[in-house]
Amino acid sequence: MGGPGDPPAGTPEDAPSGGDDEYRSVVFDESFVRAARLQEFSAQERMSDHARAVRRRPALHRSLSRQALFLVVLIALAFGTAIYMGIRHPYQSPAAKRPEPLRMTVIPLAPHGRVPGSARIADLYAHSPAARLRVGAAGIGLPAAHRTAHFSDSQVTSALTTAKDYLVESSLDPDTLTGGSPRSVRLLLDPQQLAQFDRSFARPAADGRHAPTGWLVRFDPARTALADRRVRVEGTLRVVEADKNTLEVTSDHTFAYALKRVGDEAAASLFTVRRELHFRFDRDDLRMHRAELLSSATQAGPLTCAADSANHLRPLLAGQRAGTGGPPGTDPYATGGATALCGSLAAAAQPSL
Questions:
Q1: Cα separation of 111 and 172, whole Å?
Q2: How many Cβ atoms are within 10 Å of 244's Cβ, its own excluded?
């Protein structure tokens, strides 16, 4: 390697050697001159009208090295392959499950005699199984949330919380119960179930698909009023992982409502509703705080078996009687599946006044 004063192309062959050459550092060969960035004008050029004695030569364009060119080609090939495999890969993503239509059942429970009533609401609760129920949302307790094989603790908690919110809005909210707007319930549903929900309220039908009382609890505001806005409730929530993309929550709750005739302050009676709901949550539902409602089974009484319970529940109130009921002894406070189309309200489920 040449020293700091050597020409770019090395020392000329005919240059004198030795460390005592005082002119060695100022020897310029042709390669050194060609490599210079500044070039002196010739004598003829200097005779022209030039302000400077030297001119700057354009820098030489350096071509890409073989390694750089190879790297560029390699990156382009990798990028093109990734695009091709992304479009044509043989492993297609599994199709998302479409929400199923809600399947619903509403079973009236007819009393054997007159419906007990009292002007003291506290007595109604104290002398019935509703005495052990808690007031409002406090009665809808959440179980401990544990992670599953494919869902975290927070995702399991989100499913349980959404199911509870649905129960609160559809079974406890006074505006919903008295025939108000169902918007708060609607907001908690998967968007693909909204068409069925809207049709249920626009054109109610007792067809197992389009009864508003399958989605929520509501009474006919023309004849029934709340004697107590504090609904009593007790029940359970259970969550399981259906598959790697789905959680399912099952709720089973009994609600006790103190009701009275519109415009009549004389006496109130208890009306009991047992609701069993089956929810499904995919990952989008968990993120958006919404649910798909798969099935809804409702037992409610005292009602008459002939009552149309699709659009509103029309309870028998204090002092009223029903005709003949269905199978005797159906108790909404007891566990077990609801199978009858019309049942008979057990005497033990009524206040003993």
A1: 24
A2: 11
Exposed, middle or buried by CB within 10 Å (0-12, 13-18, 19+), for 101?
A: middle
Cα torsion through 309, 232, 340, 220, rounded to 10:
-10
Picking from 283, 342, 350, the residue whose alpha carbon sits closest to that of residue 320 is 350
CA distance linking residue 206 with residue 106, whole number of Å? 9
DSSP class of residue 344 equals E
Burial of 12 (0-12, 13-18, 19+ CB in 10 A): middle
Burial state string for 232-241 with b = 16 or more CB within 10 A and e = fewer than 16: bbbbebebeb
216: Cα separation from own chain's centroid: 20
**C-alpha to C-alpha distance for 304 and 306, rounded to whole angstroms:** 5
| pLDDT given at position 210 | 96
Terminal alpha carbon distance of the chain: 115
Quote the CA–CA distance of 348 and 336 in Å, as a whole number. Answer: 16
Would you say 174 and 226 are in contact if contact means Cβ atoms under 8 Å apart? yes
For the entire predicted model, the pTM comes to 0.71
CB 338 within 8 A of CB 299: yes
Alpha-helical regions (H) of 14-105: 30-35, 43-47, 66-88
The closest alpha carbon to 300, from 267, 270, 262, 268, belongs to: 270
- pLDDT for 177 beyond 70: yes
User: Mind listing the pLDDT tens digit for each residue in 135-168?
Assistant: 999 999 999 999 999 999 999 999 999 999 999 9
